Amino acid sequence: MNIRRLLIHLHNNVDAFSFKPRHLEHIRASLPGVSITVASGNSDFMEKLPEAECALAWVFKAEWYAVAPKLKAIFTPAAGHDWVAGDPSGRVQTFYGSFHGRIMRESLLSMMLYFNRQIGKSLSDQKNQTWGRLDYSTCSALFSQQSGMDRWGSR
Predict the structure, then answer these.
(1) 39 and 64 in contact (C-beta within 8 Å)?
(2) pTM given for the model
(3) Is residue 108 part of a domain?
């Protein structure tokens, strides 16, 4: 896809999800020669949308397609498909975020270790200055645990 004009609207109440200057630098380096405009807010985004060929946004409502005749594609970092409405005419392609897998894997691993190593109990014990080492005798390393498939056969 040949992109000439990109409109970015990635404002978010959660700071971790907000657009930062370093993100713009990375996008500019990845898309040399592309005219990139960062909307300063919702009204600025709507004002600039009629000229956009591509948009990078968390949210895109179905009624916005009518005011975006030149729009070819919407890119969103959102993993869920509920934040960006599909184009009723089918003219505009939507591309969803794919980087969440790595974050989800890390979150899953942290939860597994939290419960397996009884981190909650350990933090509570530390706070209460209780050092009950025998209480942790059921902890075992993840690598030494068999999966349900190995232990019980295929399901």
Answers:
(1) no
(2) 0.66
(3) no
Label residue 5 by pLDDT band (50, 70, 90): very high
Q: Find the CATH number of the domain harbouring 92.
A: 3.40.50.720
Give pLDDT tens digits for 44-103: 999 999 999 999 999 999 999 999 999 999 999 887 788 899 999 999 999 987 666 677
pLDDT by residue (tens digit) across 6-27?
A: 999 998 888 888 889 999 999 9
Number of domains in the chain: 1
Domain that holds residue 54: 5-100
* Residues in contact with 25: Cβ distance below 8 Å, sequence separation at least 6, in sequence order: none
Specify if 88 maps to a domain: yes
> Could you tell me if residue 39 is inside a domain?
yes
